[in-house]
Design goal:
Pfam families: Sulfate_transp
Oligomer: single chain
GO biological process, one term: transmembrane transport
Strand order of the largest sheet: 1-2
Subcellular location: Membrane
Order of helices and strands: EHEHHHHHHHHHHH
Structural class: mainly alpha
Number of helices: 12
Keywords: Membrane, Transmembrane, Transmembrane helix
Domain SLC26A/SulP transporter: 79-301
Strand content: under 5%
Radius of gyration: 30 Å
Low-confidence stretches: 1-28
Number of strands: 2
């Protein structure tokens, strides 16, 4: 039997002081193919960071304007993709942002401003394609709560003035977090807390919108606690009006179109992209349909719409 042995390298003898250090407390005999990475030290890290400081400073400031790295490579193919995406998202965002403005206790035009100004600026400073830029339901609800509370204390200030001041303060905080690269702080927020907050906010928003959907929102405070809104809603059921018919049928149409498109895309896979766009734009179709119905009902008496 042939006995296979590994080539061994004898490390040079170390002094007593060096060998007693933890950094040198390792096996003296190593195989030929092993690799030992030197222990990282603060000194080596500082040396690496301070090497060519001019380039480090340049890269730091260029990281705030990432579009410089790709804008010269922008081409027609990218443009058509961006155009289709912009039209698709814009068709959804327009009615959505107007609804979010209502949650924030602001006029609809403020929702439109918020929906496109952020997107127009964002591409200059970041590259994420997944992040949501603009108003969202939770943020709009919180803004509405702050606006109402401040207006109650200082009635001389209008709602949009309070909301603008709040946006400026929040923007300064976020800007400071970005400048000092403090985004890692979010990692310390536990996931269960985030999930609970988002779930609770969703229930609160949904319950607050049901009275508006049914037309009896004038008879109860939709900004109250969720359980109070739920209880008061059932008490005010007799005050539901024609809005309930419009709201429920439009909701039914939204889900019906989505269901039909999902089934059709599975049955006709070659036209899956077409059904995807139809499903994505279903909110636009429903809005246009009910705008047309509203015009048919009110065009003879526009000063007293029903």
């Amino acid at each position: 039997m042939v006995e296979h042995t590994q080539d061994q390298l004898e490390l040079p003898e170390l002094s007593t002081t060096a060998s007693s250090s933890p950094a040198f407390s390792r096996i003296r005999t190593v195989t030929q193919h092993e690799y030992f990475e030197p222990y990282p030290t603060i000194k080596s890290w500082l040396k690496n960071e301070m090497n060519n400081p001019t380039q480090h400073i340049k890269n730091y400031f260029l990281s705030y304007l990432p579009f410089i790295n790709w804008i010269y490579r922008y081409n027609l193919t990218w443009f058509w993709g961006d155009l289709i995406a912009g039209l698709t998202v814009g068709a959804i965002v327009i009615p959505q942002s107007m609804a979010y403005a209502g949650l924030a206790k602001l006029a609809p035009q403020f929702g439109l401003y918020s929906s496109f100004v952020g997107v127009m600026i964002y591409w200059l400073f970041a590259t994420s394609k997944d992040i949501s830029i603009g108003p969202v339901a939770v943020m709009s609800t919180l803004t509405g709560n702050v606006v109402e509370a401040v207006h109650k204390e200082y009635p001389q200030y209008e709602f949009h003035t309070i909301a603008s001041s709040l946006s400026l303060i929040a923007g300064c905080i976020v800007f400071a977090l970005g400048m000092f690269r403090l985004g890692f702080i979010v990692d310390f927020i536990p996931l269960p807390a985030l999930a609970a907050f988002m779930t609770g906010s969703a229930l609160n928003i949904a319950m607050g919108q049901i009275p508006t959907l049914m037309g009896n929102n004038k008879y109860l405070n939709t900004r109250a606690s969720t359980y109070l809104v739920f209880g008061n809603f059932w008490k005010q059921i007799p005050h539901c009006n024609l809005n309930a018919a419009l709201g429920l049928t439009s909701l039914f149409l939204l889900y019906l179109i989505r269901f039909i498109c999902l089934r059709a895309s599975k049955r006709f896979p070659t036209k899956e992209k077409l059904f995807f766009f139809i499903s994505t734009l279903r909110a636009v179709f429903v809005i246009l349909l009910y705008l047309f119905i509203s015009w048919l009902i009110n065009h003879n008496d526009p000063k007293n719409p029903r």
